[in-house]
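Hello support,

Our group uses your service weekly, and this is the first time we've seen a run hang past the timeout. The protein is Thiol-disulfide oxidoreductase ResA. I'm not sure whether the cause is the sequence or the server load. Input pasted verbatim:
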Amino acid sequence: MRFLPVVFLSAMLAGLCIAQPEGKDAKAKSMLEDVKAAISAREDFLKNGRPERPDYRSAPNDQVRQQMFEKYRSRFQDYRDQVWKKSLDVLDKSRKLYNKYPRTKQAERIIPEAVNILGLIGSDPQTAAEFEDFYTKLLKHNSVGKRFIETLLEYRVRRMGSIIQSETVTGEDKSAEVKEQVEKLIEDIDSVAGRFKGVETFPNTALTLAQEMMYYEPSLAEPLVEVCEKYGGEMVKEKLAGLKKKLDMLGSKLEMNLETLDGKEISLSDYRGDVVLVDFWATWCGPCVEKVPHLKDVYEKYSDKGFEILAISLDNSKEDLKNFIKEHEMEWPQHFDGKSWENEYVKKFNIRGIPTMWLVDKKGRLADMNASSRLEEKVKELMQ
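Update from on-call engineer: The timeout came from a worker crash unrelated to the input. Re-ran successfully.
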């Protein structure tokens, strides 16, 4: 039995004023105002909250300069934390409005800012997972036009990057999660391509990721290359040519003839039957230097079991290189020609960054283009 009409009738008879339920449009407007306030707070903080970089030249000595740096670094981290918090506040309020009133003009208005922030949050795995559903809805929304799609797809790319860099997700679990995200990105691009004609800009996302995947897991780069070939314009396809050339190198024999620091001529073919690490590096490269202790550990464990390192230095100074090698007791062969990025093999193999480490198997075939990841494990596998 329903009594509500009787209640309203009694109230009317009593001459009372009954507040009517707020309309959908009014509620959506109220929620939109909340979103606008959150956006305004974020923008104001971005503009005025950033700590001022100190003038390190004014420091009387290194100790004071270091103290200034540490203080600034702490304040800047606090600033970044607040930006992140305010960004999530915008995103959360936007999601609530969109989920409740998806077909309103208010929901349409929050899309640009939501897209921009979604493109950034993929770098945090937990947060990215929380907003996966919102990302999917926006990707399918007709109002998310071409100019927003590339930004939105960054969510997926950053999410993959965060998984790759994660220290808590390892081994097969990491590979499985990355593969899942690659497959989802391909689905996303396919779904977008079905809505627009001439989607030549969208495959840039796939191309960028394919370049990264080539060093992480080449088998995952191949489907991304197919996406680029399927939808890419001339610029994408031009860039793709170099990537495909590198992918084609995997599994093929690698030929290199090098002169070591002491003037000895060596060839990669001299090491048939051994597993060889080819290391493009330099003493001025911080990440390269950080890996030296681990390289030494692996070399000491396996050099007498059929493992060798051939280093190609991009240093400009032979003396600096010699001194570094002596100081750090690096016993493996070093090639140096003083040409840095103009080195013959750096140019031939299109080396864009260092450290770049490749593993060559016992038959002289290029087996891995991302040897810095799980080096010892990979060496052991190839030596079996």
